[in-house]
Automatic annotation (TrEMBL):
Residues 272-356 form the FAD-binding domain. It comes from Streptacidiphilus cavernicola. Residues 173-234 form the 2,6-dihydroxypyridine 3-monooxygenase substrate binding domain. This is FAD-dependent monooxygenase. Keywords: Monooxygenase, Oxidoreductase. GO terms for molecular function: monooxygenase activity.
């Protein structure tokens, strides 16, 4: 099926990938509506992609090996022990992943869009309407509605398109947050020699955990250290009616004090010092949410990425899930003879996958944060058994790409 007019609401990873699919499949017009006024490449958080997922996505045309990435091979699980500055080892887990800088990955996807795709920045969508044979959007840059044959909602966890597909459905706050930070790895100095570059680290403590790994840095500045610390925030630190992220450089007051307390009380001295090197302007807070929508399509509307499935970060599958949505869209498009067939095929391919990933994220969140074991009593065999109980039978790192 070729031709038609397609709007993609949201121009980040899922949006760029879906726009590329629409262009490859011969849409007459493809418009991307991105709410942010500037380029997204400055987002410096890290993410990981399983080696098998990368191979599939490379073969499908979404990624290539020129995208800057950092090889990871092992994940070391540690717990604080007074005799060990780096912590007592619990498990040395095989970890066949590569890590990415979010902004650099987005930039590569953005640059792969053909020139026929119209990418509009500073174009927040104010309203979406749905009809059986068309959809329309009104953005901040347009005085009225523009009609399309298909509107793809890739506009994140606060999706305007999702409200039109599933009115009143939104992400659920998990009850804890993640503090995030990054800093140039060279700031570790001699301490870096105690931490192999290909190792990710997970430090476990009662009520939370901290994950650290290196990611590519922008330009020629060398790699960055990326870290994520999960724990419940202090009471009253987040507005109860709107638990939005606290952007980079704005973490002050109780949230900053609570992070300092967690480092002092729960992390081994080595890792507490490493995280304390992070300047305030490179620290943020992200409340943890999850969501699996009851349906991904309505009329000529389709949801992808975080608009459809908000998965807790423990799964290490966010980027893979977004790109797999685009892959499923392309497979459905190739097989369809009409727009309704395309939408039906896409929903059939991705509905259950999204629910499985959300369920896995909830299990991992409960096991690692909300109802974590007494780590002081755990050994290697116990940690492996605990882990396998959480990930079976779904697996880890995202689903295989559907063809």
């Amino acid at each position: 099926m070729r031709g038609g007019r397609v709007a993609v609401v949201g121009g980040s990873i899922a949006g760029c990938a879906c726009a590329a699919v629409a262009a490859r499949q011969g849409a007459d017009r493809v418009v991307v509506l991105e709410r942010s006024p500037g380029r997204l490449r400055d987002r410096g958080v890290g993410l990981c992609l399983h080696d098998a997922r990368f191979a599939e996505l490379e073969a499908a045309g979404f990624l290539d090996a020129r995208v800057p990435r950092h090889r990871l091979t092992r994940r070391r699980w540690l717990v604080r022990d007074g005799a060990e500055p780096m912590g007592r080892p619990l498990w040395d887990q095989p970890f066949p992943f590569h890590s990415y800088h979010w902004g650099l990955l987005w930039q590569a996807l953005r640059e792969r869009l053909p020139g026929t795709v119209e990418y509009r920045s500073a174009a927040p969508v104010a309203a979406v309407t749905v009809e059986p044979d068309r959809a329309a959007v009104r953005s901040g840059s347009s005085p009225g509605f523009e009609e399309y044959d298909l509107v793809i909602g890739a506009d994140g966890y606060r999706s305007a398109v999702r409200e039109a597909v599933c009115p009143g459905v939104g992400p659920r706050y998990a009850g804890y947050v993640c503090w995030r930070g990054s800093l140039p790895a060279e700031r570790l100095g001699g301490a870096a020699r105690r931490w192999a570059p290909e190792h990710a680290v997970t430090v476990c403590f009662t009520g939370g955990q901290c994950v650290l790994y290196r990611i590519p840095g922008p330009g020629s500045g060398g790699p960055l250290l990326n870290w994520v610390l999960y724990a419940a925030p202090p009471d009253g630190a987040l507005p109860p009616e709107d638990r939005a992220s606290v952007p980079t450089g704005s973490v002050t007051g109780p949230l900053a004090d609570h992070l300092a307390m967690l480092l002092e009380r729960h992390l081994p001295p080595y890792w507490a010092r490493v995280i304390a090197l992070t300047p305030p302007e490179l620290t943020s807070v992200q409340p943890v949410h999850d969501l699996a929508v009851p349906r991904r399509t309505a009329g000529r509307l389709l949801l992808a990425g975080d608009a459809a499935t908000v998965v807790r970060p423990h799964n290490t599958s966010g980027a893979a899930t977004a790109l797999n949505d685009a892959g499923a869209l392309e497979a459905a498009w190739r097989a369809a003879g009409s727009w309704p067939e395309l939408l039906s095929g896409y929903a059939a391919a991705r509905d259950s996958a999204g629910r499985e990933l959300v369920a896995l994220g909830r299990r991992l969140g409960a096991a690692q944060v909300e109802q974590a074991p007494d780590w002081s009593t755990m050994d290697g065999a116990g940690t492996v058994a605990w882990w396998e109980q959480q990930v079976a039978p779904t697996g880890f790192g995202g689903h295989a790409l559907a063809r």
